[in-house]
Specification:
The protein has 17 helices and 13 strands. By secondary structure, the protein is of the alpha/beta class. It has two domains: about 120 residues, Response regulator (Rossmann fold, 3-Layer(aba) Sandwich); about 300 residues, Rossmann fold, CATH 3.40.50. It starts with a strand and ends with a helix.
């Protein structure tokens, strides 16, 4: 049976000749529709009448979201570029097109590439209307904690609603990792109310993650562009600020966020992502295949992360929310295994030893024991927030800071210095 193919190479002088050559029986390829733009191509893909799409790099309005939608519809993609145009090759590959050929390639070679691309498309197991179908394919996991072969690690800081301290943990981990001489990038990906810029005293008008996502969507993001968009807060620490207004969430398409995180792996040894709480599907939007998904950015970050930290408070209400949030995460992303971090641990909200009581409750209701306990230190966190500085700057001896430093060292795969050496180093840095 002939391979059913869509083409979207309009505007190229060689289109008609190529389509005619591909339609020959000897190639085993049938062009079922010649599309004039991305909108028509996506509409044709949604019909299920084609198995592959052949598109040119110059196709107007082609972006990473469009390629993700084609993959979600089960349509393999092969790109064509003008001979010798390496920038176009790089752009298409950044958009998610693995197979890219010169436009003057032999028709038999193009047909073989189409068949190979179709054979390599896995069964997604998700309907095209499922918001998770638009997520980029996760990168292969790296077994080692240290950065192997130029690829850094991504840690997503997530947790239930109710302000359990996700941003405090994310900022603290990033700052402590940088102070351990680990090149670190902090990303504010909270689509409901990112405040990393305010916590660190930065201007929230900078494009930050939204600007990086726009470049990623057009295939123009590279390490140099990402470096320009990220604030250099201190040596070894850069910050990609979040949305200045929550209603700008459609700018963070999941495929673009995935591309930003992949580029971040090349820029930094450790990337810490401050995520929003919500991983639910929007039932009203789930029947609209073209609508953006507000929680898509969160799902993309969680799915691509090497480690997902679930931050929970230590009081009964926070623990109940954590149990429910973990159930929702299991339904949305069953392959993600979160690591529990208990924040704001203190005596009072639970009877007895708070560490033992909280650990026992989480083990009973979630089957997981916390990896880290972060003590409540309201005086230190208030001082940091009031001055737009980090815990290491305002309260270097804080027990909360010590636990964050130990966790950061563990995640980055480095050894934390002894307490005495740390205080001496911090005084010298100050």
């Amino acid at each position: 049976m002939a391979l059913q193919v869509f083409t979207a190479v309009t505007g190229a002088g060689w289109e008609s000749e190529l389509v005619g050559a591909l339609d020959r029986d000897a190639h085993g390829v049938t062009v079922v529709r010649r599309c004039v733009d991305v909108a028509e191509l996506l509409a044709a893909a949604a019909t299920g009448t084609g198995q592959a799409a052949l598109l040119s790099a110059e196709l107007r309005r082609l972006d990473g979201e469009a390629v993700s939608r084609l993959h979600a519809a089960g349509v393999a993609v092969v790109g064509l570029v003008e001979p010798g145009d390496e920038l176009a090759v790089q752009r298409l590959r950044q958009l998610g097109v693995a197979q890219v050929l010169p436009a003057d390639a032999d028709p038999e070679v193009i047909a073989a590439a189409l068949r190979e691309a179709v054979a390599g498309v896995p069964d997604a197991g998700r309907d095209v209307a499922d918001p998770r179908a638009a997520l980029p394919a996760p990168a292969e996991p790296e077994p080692a904690l240290a950065r192997p072969g130029g690829r850094g690690r991504v840690v997503a800081v997530w947790g239930p609603t109710g302000a359990p301290g996700r941003t405090t943990v994310a900022v603290g981990l990033a700052d402590e990792a940088a102070r351990l001489d680990v090149a670190t990038l902090l990303v504010d990906a909270d689509v409901y109310g990112g405040v990393v810029a305010q916590v660190l005293g930065l201007l929230d008008e900078s494009p930050g993650l939204a600007g990086a996502a726009r470049l990623a969507g057009t295939g123009m993001l590279d390490a140099a562009a990402l470096t320009r968009l990220a604030w250099a807060v201190r040596p070894g620490l850069r910050v990609l600020t979040g949305l200045a207004r929550a209603d700008r969430w459609p700018e963070l398409r999941p495929s673009a966020v995935g591309t930003v995180l992949e580029e971040a792996r090349r820029l930094a040894d450790l990337t810490v992502v401050d995520c929003a709480f919500n991983v639910e599907d929007d039932e009203e939007l789930s029947f609209d295949t073209a609508a953006p998904r507000r929680n898509g950015a969160t799902l993309a970050a969680l799915e691509q992360a090497d480690t997902v930290l679930c931050v929970t408070g230590a009081d009964p209400v926070a623990l109940q929310r954590c149990v429910r949030a973990l159930d929702q995460l299991r339904e949305a992303l069953p392959d993600v295994e979160p690591v529990l971090v208990v924040n704001q641990l203190r005596r009072g909200p639970v009877p007895g030893d708070p560490r033992e009581e909280v650990a026992a409750a989480l083990d009973r209701f979630t089957g997981r024991r916390p990896r880290s306990f972060l003590p409540a230190d309201r005086r230190a966190t208030d001082a940091a927030l009031a001055t737009g500085r980090t815990l290491a700057e305002v309260a270097p001896g804080s027990p909360l800071r010590a636990e964050l430093r130990a966790l950061a060292a563990d995640l980055a795969g480095v050894r934390a210095p002894a307490a005495g050496r740390r205080r001496l180093r911090d005084r010298r840095a100050g």
